[in-house]
Write a structure and sequence with these properties.
Elements lengths: L1 H11 L5 E2 L1 H8 L10 E4 L8 H8 L1 H4 L3 E5 L18 E5 L12 H6 L4 E2 L9 H9 L2 E4 L6 H10 L3 E7 L6 H8 L4 E2 L7 E6 L10 E3 L5 E6 L1 E5 L42 H9 L2
This protein binds S-adenosylmethionine.
The site of S-adenosylmethionine has 20 residues, from strand 1 and helix 3.
Amino acid sequence: MATKNLDNAKRQKKDEFYTQLSDIEKELVHYRLLFKGKTILCNCDDPRVSKFFYYFYANFHFLGLKRLTATCYKNLNPDLFSQNLDEQAVYCVYDGADRSDDKYTDYDAFIRQNEWGVLKGDGDFRSAECVELLKQADIVCTNPPFSLFREYVAQLVEYEKKFIIIGNINAVTYKEIFALFKENKIWLGRSIHSGDREFGVPDSYPLDAAGFRVGENGKKYIRVKGVRWFTNLDIKKRHEEIVLYKNYSPKEFPKYDNYDAIEVSKVSDQCNLLGKKWRRLRSP
Ligand SMILES: C[S@@+](CC[C@H](N)C(=O)[O-])C[C@H]1O[C@@H](n2cnc3c(N)ncnc32)[C@H](O)[C@@H]1O
């Protein structure tokens, strides 16, 4: 049902799905050492509300970041859930200024101090000023608009950026994204393999599906199926030895008529889960 909502979101270009801090933490912990000395860009993120920006702001010194930049889209007002009504948007650059000073001691204070600027344009990730910021970044991390996922990834590849982004598993069926998987230029992240995840959505979203709730704060949340992290940052898991425990059988894994590939329909037969099986097999 929630997948239906995400499909509807794509059709209606309703892109306001806000990632929860706990999901961000569970994924980014796997890349901790890779962030040292890096400039991070969150380019679909209102710095005043994005939990991506918050995560990197709060962990700036712990991760040893060089700089953190966020830009949002068509939004000047600091309300949760942008309506994308403004012709301009805000951005924020944080370079780890001394947080012993009172005004930097917490995020709320930081945000209250109006530590952001206004972009010349609407903050579209494809605009010249946002591309300039992209060029300066080492790692891009966000939840980009689902309706523009293809273009978003294409731009990251064009500028040869490292990235960790969250999206829907359906994206692997896009011709362009599938080609990147085949060429080993993108892979799935570490923390989400199945199930659903909860996202914040604007009050105005028509939610007729199961899996949505109104939180104590009065905000709406919806559980979305098929969510995955997509990255080109190296993770340890990719280098674990895979012990093969099955023989190929054309009957069990038939070849497609129209594509040079075999069908492996069970998740448990797919390589990303072999690590678990392997540990089980090896334990006494
Ligand atoms: C799925 S939401 C995620 C928001 C935030 N990154 C998060 O995870 O909490 C995608 C965001 O991209 C913004 N957006 C839509 N079109 C955009 C564009 N062309 N350029 C940049 N951002 C865009 C939307 O306003 C929306 O806030």
